[in-house]
Amino acid sequence: MLKPSEEAIKQELVDAIRMLERAEYIDHNGHCSVRRDESSFYINSGGSMRAALTVEDIVTVDLDGKPVDGGNVKPPLEFPIHAEVYRARPKIGAVFHTHPQWSTYLTMTGVQQKVVYAQASLLGDMPVMDSPMSVNSRAIGEKMVAVMGDNPIVMLKAHGVVAAGETVLECFAYAAYVEENARRQYMALQIGEPYVFSDEEQAACRQKLRSPSLFKKTWDHYRSKIA
Questions:
Q1: pLDDT grade, residue 3 (50/70/90)?
Q2: Contact between 128 and 112 (Cβ < 8 Å)
Q3: pLDDT in tens, 141-168
Q4: Can you tell me the distance from the alpha carbon of 63 to that of 86, in angstroms, rounded to the nearest whole number?
Q5: What is the pLDDT of residue 121?
Q6: Rounded to whole angstroms, how far apart are CA atoms 18 and 125?
Q7: Which of 19, 73, 160, 163 has the fewest CB atoms found within 10 Å of its own CB?
Q8: Quick check: 95 pLDDT over 80?
Q9: End-to-end CA distance of the chain
Q10: Is the CB of residue 183 less than 8 Å from the CB of residue 100?
Q11: What is the pLDDT of residue 188?
Q12: 6-211 is classed in which CATH architecture?
């Protein structure tokens, strides 16, 4: 099987960012990346307009945020989010940093996300980094990765969410699932105490839902909205 071209990888990343922006999971400051190799990755530039992103807005940088192919277009200030996940977790192929509303409302008020939506069973413990500050240095990025552990997501208190997956589609699905879970939990809390899936129910859901075909189904749903 032929590997995707650099152009195709960048276009997939562009689509992911535009889909997240359309869904209001990122705003003018969201950023997403794809691993290029052991020491570099693709990411949208810091100054790019997320809603109108093109492949020209994708830059290639090393783990210190320096451009690989020359030029002076800079990555987002929070590139250490991506660099430190890639350093610590060799199997990870994509990292997304979103600024979603519902997940952030919960972390702002100290409400822990619970699994109230089947797909959220894939998200691990959904840990929270207890700081709203920008992850703009290697040291802070390392702290974030330590909180994240082996989980596919970590939430940044009163700030946003970081998702990581082996592929862009998997990472996108996690970024979508955490926000959908948070929305359902938040809305249910307006009525009463939401039902939380038991450990046994979560295990059963994980067996059925951790599937590349279902990640693609999620992707295709969001992709149709920007077609």
A1: low
A2: yes
A3: 999 999 999 999 999 999 999 999 999 9
A4: 8
A5: 98
A6: 28
A7: 73
A8: yes
A9: 27
A10: no
A11: 98
A12: 3-Layer(aba) Sandwich (3.40)
Strands of 40-44's sheet in order across? 58-62, 40-44, 31-37, 94-98, 160-165, 153-156, 128-129
**CA dist., res. 105 & res. 160, Å (int):** 10
* Nearest to 32, CA basis, from 101, 67, 81: 81
Residues in Cβ contact with 155 at an 8 Å cutoff, skipping those fewer than 6 apart:
103, 106, 107, 113, 126, 127, 128, 129, 161, 162, 178
pLDDT at residue number 187: 98
Phi, psi angles (nearest 5°) of residue 174: -65, -40
pTM of structure? 0.95
Q: 32-41, 65-74, 129-138, 153-162: which range is least confident on average?
A: 65-74
Place of tokens 């783990």: 63
